[in-house]
Design a protein that fits this description.
Chain lengths: ~525, ~110
Amino acid sequence: MSLPRKLKDHAARHARATDPHPEAARKQAAQGKLLARERITAILDPESFHEYDLFVEHKCSDFGMAGKQLPGDGVITGTGTIMGHPVAIYAQDFTVAGGSLGLAHARKITKIMDHAIKLGIPLIGINDSGGARIQEGVNSLAGYGEIFYRNTLASGVIPQISIILGPCAGGAVYSPALTDFVFVVDKISKMFITGPEVIRTVLGEEISMEDLGGARVQSEISGNAHFYAESEAECFEQVKRLVTFIPWNNRKKADPFGPASSRTEASLEGIIPAESTRPYDVRDILRAVCDGSDFMEVQALWAPNIVIGFARMGGRTVGLVANQPSVLAGVLDVDSSDKAARFIRFCDAFNIPLVTFVDLPGYLPGVDQEHAGVIRHGAKLLYAYSEATVPKITVILRKAYGGGYIAMCSRHLGADFVFAWPCAEIAVMGPEGAANIIFKGEIAAAADPEAFRREKVKEYTEKFASPYVAAANGHVDAVIAPGQTRDFLLHALEISDQKAEPRPTRKHGVPPF
Amino acid sequence: MTPRHTLTLDGRAYETALTRKYTLRKPYTPADPGRVAAVIPGLILEVLVAPGARVRRGQSLLVLEAMKMQNHLAAPADGCVRDVAVAPGDTVAKGQLLLVLQPDPDSL
């Protein structure tokens, strides 16, 4: 064959492998879904996608699979850039055998994963698959297992992003679950281990796919998803934005971004109500101190009593953790501890300094919390903060009581800098409870127990419900006016840039997960 | 534990013991979007709306004092207040019904 003929042959082969099957493409569009290739193009910088393994074929000959050609074996893999940041990407193609996962399909994915780990670039997986390719039997399971294994090896080495744009059911859900960030889209994403059909036959319970594992459920109730979008286009914008905040790998820091000034520092004083029992939206504080008020919240809909997310200060990416007084008074509970702990570990693994804003009354009391394991889950937060060696800076805004004070990155868990606003109340417990316990006998014996009790509550409040006892003991480094917050944070981050904190050697810790 | 129960998975019935947690599990019931319940035990400080009032998603309906905080309970959707089940001064348990909202069908 002459070269021109070979080129023509190549073009024909390429077209056969990439042209979508018209009927399957029509079905995909009818569900409001983009095609796999369109999705990759939409996420990556124009013309940046380079595809590999287009001509990979499966080797299955059972159940009529012999001679059945599946273009790309149902998955598209390659590399490209997002706003100039390199990424490895794969997208399952539902129009090819329902995006089902056989061994060749899985090996394409593990190959691109191996590349990403070696090259030190983020991995993005787009999941849209009916599940295991049943005809391939245990080989299909082998494929899943090999992916999970690499997800685990890559954890803490390169950022891993999963985008769920279709069904992702059964064992398949464990790949996203092992990755750092899961993106879902309303009415398109479906995640579950066992579907509605199985639940009906085993338990006799009726539930729709949407109510069982739709985007809303995974974002709000289970906490499996980190970012929720109304459309694929919105989702892709979220992915791009996230990629700009995080580093390529654990050997690098996130790329700095032109420092922008904060919205306004004067406004800080107006955000917190004078009465400590009044709620406010702590995100207003975060937006007021970060560069350009550009705060990207993670898991905004799940456990909203704690707020986590990325921002920049002086151009550097920081991870923000803050109690949210406007939801459940900002208490720590099972879900909020779990949510913050994982985020802290991500930041620590990827050299992102942590800034914590504290305003919480303590842990949520309740039988359901105790029985749900608030001890075990709460311990994750202590573990994550103590384990983290990135710069850790804490600002106590208002209330910091009891175990909650310790847990929220106190000096005692290794915070490098602890600042407190003058309205901070740092004490072992609230004045009411403390007075009732300390003066139990005296209150009972007093001529007017209620008046005596009120007096003691007042005394305790004046003496201990302030930042100055903690400051006198060196647990707080500086009591600062709200307007000084950004300045103190920028300086602390600046001088912590080369922080090194060696720890005893170990294979790995044993966190309470 | 003596296996006295069967569990059917993937078409096969297994003779096995069941855990207490499994036996006591509550069957799934879809959440009623119009039911505004106490998210935390506490004291009702204020009721900000009356039956018949039109409310917008996110609007504060009641103030529930708990955990040293005046928690605002927001409307889950646009709609009309059908019934208010509590008054200021009431102590409420977690999950207790506080208010019934008739959500607009297109607001859910």
